[in-house]
Specification:
Order of helices and strands: HHHHEHEEHE
Distance between the termini: 20 Å
Strand order of the largest sheet: 2-3-1-4
Largest sheet: 4 strands, antiparallel
Number of helices: 6
Helix content: 25-40%
CATH superfamily of the largest domain: Lrp/AsnC effector binding domain/regulation of amino acid metabolism (RAM) domain
CATH architecture of the largest domain: 2-Layer Sandwich
Length: about 160
């Protein structure tokens, strides 16, 4: 498990500001967090070097893209041999429809969040791709009716 990185109050404010809007200029960030522009620049580079700040992305409105059906899919593996698990992980990483994947405790081995355009799109993915993978024993699907909360920013 990775060790948590120690950060101070200014670092926390910087992280919160960047999570809210990664397009802010260095001067705007400095004004927002109460530090000099040079200090902000050095802190951001240090947080990147430490592996705490990762890549910058733009969030996309899934509905406007026509990809707003979310399915929570539980997967049970046929077996847990290391090569089977590795093959499944590689498979998951290669599937553009799978947005999130978690290895789970309990009755199911993995929990996937899958984003598709419609039910027919999911049926195709499920029947022609997911269930055909040799490591997958069974799957159970749950369709999200609405999105109550969606958040990408971590609490700092």
């Amino acid at each position: 498990m990775k060790q948590a990185i120690q950060i101070d109050a200014i670092d926390r404010r910087l992280i919160a500001a960047l999570q809210a809007d990664a397009t802010l200029s260095n001067a705007a960030l400095a004004a927002q967090v109460g530090a000099s522009a040079a200090s902000c620049w050095r802190r951001i580079r240090a947080l990147e070097s430490a592996g705490l700040l990762l890549g910058s992305v733009r969030l996309v409105d899934a509905a406007r893209l026509g990809c707003d059906i979310n399915i929570i899919c539980q997967v049970r593996m046929k077996n847990h041999a290391p090569e089977t698990v590795a093959a499944f992980v590689d498979f998951v990483r290669a599937q553009r429809e799978i947005m999130d994947c978690y290895s789970m405790s309990g009755d199911w081995d993995y929990l996937l969040r899958i984003a598709v355009a419609d039910v027919a799109d999911y049926e195709r993915f499920l029947m022609r791709t997911l269930l055909r993978h040799p490591s997958v024993g069974t799957a159970s699907s749950h369709f999200a009716l609405s999105q109550v909360k969606y958040q990408t920013a971590l609490p700092v």
